[in-house]
Amino acid sequence: MAKKEKLSTDPYKGVRDFYPEDQAFLNYFFATIKGMVEKAGYVEYGASILEPAELYKSKGVENEEIINEQTYTFVDRGGREVTLRPEMTPTVARMVAGKRRELGFPLRLFSIPNLFRYERPQRGRMREHWQLNVDLFGSDSLYADAEIIGVAYGVMKAFGASDDDFVIKVGSRIWLNQLISELGLDAERAQSLRRLLDAKDKMPIDEFKTKLAELQVPEGVVLDAAPPAEIQRMLGEFAAAGITNIVFDPSIVRGFAYYTGMVFEVFDTHPLNNRALFGGGRYDDLTEMFDDEPIAGVGFGMGDATVHNFLEVRGLLPAYLPPTKVYVAITSPELAGEAQTFAGFLRAQGINTAIDFGDRKLGDQIKTATKHKIPYIIVVGPDELASGSFVVRDLAAGKDIPLAKEAIADFFLNS
Ligand code: HAM
């Protein structure tokens, strides 16, 4: 018989598998975020990965690049065009508009969805990523803008970052729109200016100046721009609170068409990580696609991959520890039943216990525990079962702790 061609064990291009240690990071990412944003009064929501494609086609909603080149869209069996959500903002706007009468405002929402974008995979850019979304609806107060930036700052602190590890750059769509109208730029040149500003940090400053000149934009109006009064005030309040890594940067414009006011991005200051960790801003008209009374919104998205890179280069990633506390090894397979009872005894007292089946050498059983990074092992043999005294081995310290059966759970609960 001809040998069958084997399938690759690689995941689909640009997406990741989460083996237990990777999943543990993701869980840490979720838990750290949740702790921080719930403290600030945000509540969690969720939605399906699938959305009608038209949600992203509405004029003024999407970033052209995302809609034209990056969506995963297919036709379902009923002939409907469906898109795997590339971002969460249109979804949350849809949900808020859908229940505007029932929901109380200001409304503080967060979610950590997985998103899909057909991107060229590279460091910090994947085809599927997990993204914290924090959004505040129903207020156009400057304090709402400040709160959202404050939450972004707080999330970074919750991950153990110090102020010089990152910088929050704040720009303004109002400033930009005014500039475009003062310069009398037509739609095409206005778009070129937006793209150029967005790419500013990716080119040498001289090239940036040359390109400004090509667009007939005097360089001073960008390079010497002063922050608009309300942003100046906000930065002043942060500075008064001792936070100085939040700065005005007119080149922050953001790609999405829906932003209407303050926009911001959080940058890692490490040279290896040149991507934005977060991006967000104010979008006051987005719900207009559902009805005539727009609800003001302001929020941000933060990706798991960029945060992982941030933590990794600074040694801030938590060490992996499995949820399993102890591995029960067995001297011979005949004792498997009694060892199961012993494991059940530990589990009943709240100790997460995995067990071997005793059909391999003890050395191999211990290797398994070590590979799984389980911190403790207990060997169950005829003597232990007869006497009721066991030895708990701390695998990392190479230390043996003799304990009576009844004292084992207490030892784990206190260690
Ligand atoms: P965004 O700038 O497209 O904004 O994404 C926000 C963050 O998600 C980025 O700064 C980056 O950390 C991460 N991210 C985005 N795309 C990828 C990718 N392909 N792979 C890995 N990480 C990625 C938005 O999506 C807006 N909807 C955010 C928002 C919420 N604005 C208001 N509310």
Could you list some keywords that capture this structure?
BirA Bifunctional Protein, domain 2, Rossmann fold, 14 helices, nine-stranded mixed sheet, 415 residues, alpha+beta, binds histidyl-adenosine monophosphate, five-stranded mixed sheet, elongated
CATH topology of the largest domain: BirA Bifunctional Protein, domain 2
What fraction of the residues are assigned to beta strands by DSSP? Answer: 15-25%
Q: How would you name the CATH homologous superfamily of the largest domain?
A: Bira Bifunctional Protein, Domain 2
What separation lies between the terminal Cα atoms?
A: 58 Å
Let me know the average pLDDT: 94
User: What class would the helix/strand composition place it in?
Assistant: alpha+beta
Number of domains: 2
Number of strands: 17
Query: Which CATH-level-2 architecture of the largest domain?
Result: 2-Layer Sandwich
Low-confidence stretches: none
Large-scale geometry: elongated
| Level-1 CATH class name of the largest domain | Alpha Beta
- Ligands bound to this protein structure: histidyl-adenosine monophosphate
List the total number of helices. Answer: 14
How much helix, percentage-wise, in residues?
25-40%
Report on this model:
There is one protein chain. Strands 1, 5, 6, 7, 8, 9, 10, 11 and 12 form a nine-stranded mixed sheet that branches. Helix 1 packs antiparallel against helix 4. The N and C termini lie far apart (about 60 Å). The protein contains 14 helices and 17 strands. The chain has helices at about 20-40, 65-70, 90-100, 140-160, 175-185, 185-200, 205-215, 220-225, 230-240, 305-315, 335-350, 360-370, 380-385, 405-415; strands spanning about 45, 50, 70-75, 80-85, 105-110, 115, 130-135, 165-170, 245-250, 260-270, 275-285, 295-305, 325-330, 355, 375-380, 390-395, 400-405. The protein has about 425 residues and is of the alpha+beta class. About 35% of the residues lie in helices and about 20% in strands. The model has no long low-confidence stretch (mean pLDDT about 95). The chain has two domains: about 20-175 and about 200-205 and about 225-315, 2-Layer Sandwich (BirA Bifunctional Protein, domain 2); about 325-415, Rossmann fold, CATH 3.40.50.800. Histidyl-adenosine monophosphate binds near residues 126, 278 and 300.
